[in-house]
Amino acid sequence: MTSTLEDKFFDLCTVYTIFFLVKKWLFMALIFVHPSTLLSSYAAESQLIVSTLGKEKSHVNVVVIGHVDSGKSTTTGHLIYKCGGIDKRTIEKFEKEAAELGKGSFKYAWVLDKLKAERERGITIDIALWKFETPKYHVTVIDAPGHRDFIKNMITGTSQADCAILIIAGGIGEFEAGISKDGQTREHALLAYTLGVKQLIVAINKMDSVKWDESRFEEIVKETSNFIKKVGYNPKTVPFVPISGWNGDNMIEPSTNCPWYKGWKKETKAGEAKGKTLLEAIDAIDPPSRPTDKPLRLPLQDVYKIGGIGTVPVGRVETGVIKPGMVVTFAPAGVTTEVKSVEMHHEQLTEGLPGDNVGFNVKNVSVKEIRRGNVCGDSKNDPPKAAESFNAQVIVLNHPGQISAGYSPVLDCHTAHIACKFDTLIEKIDRRTGKKLEEAPKFIKSGDAAIVKFVPSKPLSVEAFTDYPPLGRFAVRDMRQTVAVGVIKAVEKSDKAGKVTKAAVKATKK
Fold first, then answer.
1. Same-domain check for residues 87 and 208
2. 50 Cβ neighbours under 8 A, 6+ residues apart
């Protein structure tokens, strides 16, 4: 039997995988002997292997949105299954389980359900499972649709999405239900636009259920174009792709079931882009600019105490760069100290960049002093501070009554979860144009937009959306649902001095 190039590649990958596992076991067994030597050699060796596997593609984050039952899970699962980081053994395991449970023909939503369950069970989920590749990009799916806190996660999401993929069900009655007043399609699209997700792809799913009817596709494109235009998107920059997430039509390969479909077109910064499939539409996303030139902002997701190492905060770099030796300030805790080391996926980094989920070791700080929801920043370059109050533009999505001054629900902003008071209703505005409709309204209700002054009940660090977008958008939560969403316009910051560790003083003198 002749071995193909593909077989050789997989053999090579298997060798690398075994090599990594052996290295990891040795590393775990010996780390207590010479931690510093081992860490650096392990990182250097990993770096060498990664660099031999070819040039790194750039990363984009996508969020999949749309009405319940539009086929979000099936479509996302299909992309991850066909183009993603799920190894063959895992797929075989899932297929076997699916067959045993009578799921019969293995379908892609099952992949997503399994991954969701595994992600929700533990904190160390392999992020590769949530990735897939296009010729140009590594794509990360920020949050799986169908999640109970999907809207909350979309707003406070540890990542800002670069593009939203709106899945619309083409079935008779389904499309109409999705874009009706009560449907989630409008709400999700409005949320995406309000939160700064300026690129959109529309996938019209379940086209097999209407026998690939061209007139049905055209009708949906027309209706959807009208409503996304009202939300704020320019339909000329949006690809519309007819798909079947279940059967795979126009997902990765062009379908033979719709000879009438000549492909999608969209205007981009570089000119016109064309294609036929959903994968090509994702590949045609405008490359996002990453805010490395801004000051550091890193909201903490967790803080661990690791024996022999010390305090290790963990979080995603939103803006700026974090490096070993840097002096950082945590707000609202007001603690300033030095960063000893920065790691990602068990590898030492010389710097953590926007989008990186990092763990970093800090000196002279106990786990009791900093917590989830704190923000880490460079003490010498616009360090984060506690907010005394902030003004925000709020859209009320879903409140059974009237909201007036004094209302104190919980705000989810980046990784913080803090009760904040609607202190003053400054003005009611037109949610599309931003024009003032009423000065100092007595109350606001569902569907209204307003400028509101908020006062946090406990220390909180937030930023204006224009300065640091991921720290300037929030969800208002009450009665176990998202009542409103907001974008912060201005922050009144506290000037209280906090604790400066010996390590910080020493590092500053260097």
1. yes
2. none
Q: What is the CATH number of the domain that holds 446?
A: 2.40.30.10
Longest C-alpha distance within the chain, in Å? 80
Q: DSSP readout, 354-406?
A: TT-EEEEEESS--TTT--TT-EEEETTSS----EEEEEEEEEE---SS-B-TT
Given this model, what pLDDT does residue 155 score?
60
Under DSSP, is residue 107 helix (H, G, I), strand (E, B) or coil? coil
pTM metric for this prediction? 0.64
Going 324 to 325 to 329 to 335, the CA torsion angle's sign is positive
Q: What percent of the chain has pLDDT over 90?
A: 40
307 within some domain: yes
Q: Over the stretch 436-463, which tens digit does the pLDDT of each residue have? A: 999 999 999 988 999 999 999 999 999 9
Domain limit, last residue, from 360, 384, 408:
384
- 464 plus 368 within the same structural domain: no
CA separation, residue 110 to residues 74, 80, 91, 107, 490 (Å) = 8, 11, 10, 6, 44
In total, how many domains does the chain have?
4
Distance CA 152, CA 148 (A): 9
Give SS3 for 156: helix
What's the pLDDT at 149? 56
Three-point CA angle 267, 272, 278, nearest 5° = 80
Predicted local distance difference test score (pLDDT) of residue 106:
46
Which residues partner with 481 through β-bridges?
478
Tokens, residue 234: 């320019």
Which pLDDT does position 258 carry in this prediction?
A: 94
Count Cβ atoms within 10 A of the Cβ of residue 315 and give its class: 0-12 exposed, 13-18 middle, 19 or more buried: buried
Tell which residue, 167, 189, 176, has the closest CA to residue 243.
167
Give which of 46, 41, 121, 138 is closest to 83, Cα–Cα. Answer: 138
309, part of any domain: yes
Torsion of CA 98, 103, 106, 108, to 10 degrees: -90
| Separation of alpha carbons 18 and 347, rounded Å | 17
Q: What stretches in the chain show pLDDT beneath 50? A: 1-10, 12-55, 104-106, 119, 121-129, 144-148, 158
Report yes or no on 397 lying in a domain: yes
For residue 11, give the 3-state DSSP assignment.
helix
Which structural domain range is residue 407 located in? Answer: 387-493
User: What is the reported pLDDT for 508?
Assistant: 77
Q: Are 31 and 89 within one domain?
A: no
